[in-house]
Amino acid sequence: MASAPMHCYRHPKRETRVSCATCGRPICTECMNQTAVGIKCPEDARVPRGARAGAMKTNQIVKSLLAGVAVAVVGVAVAYAIFQIPAFRLIFAGLAGYLAGIFIHRAGGRNGGPLAMIVSGVSVALAFAPFVLPQVLAGSFQFFVVLPALVAIGFAVYQNR
Ligand SMILES: [Zn+2]
Ligand SMILES: [Zn+2]
Question: 51-94: per-residue pLDDT in tens?
């Protein structure tokens, strides 16, 4: 947190140390709205989840992409572990995708939207690629190899809708 006082974007004469969780603009105590996901400005408190699709700011886009890279790298180990499990692979794959999706969603400032969905889908797909691609390229569509990957991708993308 910067220690320099900011000024409410709606009341430029009022000093504040609070800023909107969604857009980052400073807001005074009169303007702030306490929501389930933090303090928000009146505009963002009114906008329903998902309506701000594509409204990520540059630093949130960068964080989303970094989170995607992290998911792809760590995900390879997770995907490997999932393929060692003889049963209930789909449940573990779904859980892994769900957690990856939440991670990327938070990294992007909880905006979600098309870019976050693409980052989630691609990063989870990359995590599964070393195990799924050789099978697919060899022309053998193995149900219990391809399906867990699709389930994980689906859960990750869904979190960023
Ligand atoms: Zn705002
Ligand atoms: Zn204000």
Answer: 555 567 888 899 999 999 999 999 999 999 999 988 889 999 99
The pair of three-digit structure tokens given for residue 66, joined into one six-digit string: 């970094």
Instruction: Report the separation in Å between the CA atom of 22 and the middle of ligand 1, taken as the mean of its atom positions.
Output: 5
Which bound ligand lies closest to the C-alpha atom of 42?
1
In the reported structure, the alpha carbon of residue 13 is separated from the centroid of ligand 2 by a whole-number distance in angstroms of 9
Distances (CA, A) of 28 to 16, 21, 25: 5, 13, 10
Residue 54 CA to ligand 1 center (angstroms) comes to: 15
DSSP 90: H
The per-residue DSSP string of 16-48 comes to: ES-B-TTT--B--TTT-EEETTEEE-HHHHHSP
Ligand closest to CA 10:
2
Q: Is it the case that residue 1 has pLDDT exceeding 60?
A: no
Domains in the chain: boundaries: 6-46, 58-159
What pTM was estimated for this model as a whole? 0.64
User: Of the ligands numbered here, which is closest to the C-alpha atom of 19?
Assistant: 1
| Residue 48, C-beta contacts closer than 8 angstroms, at least 6 positions apart | none
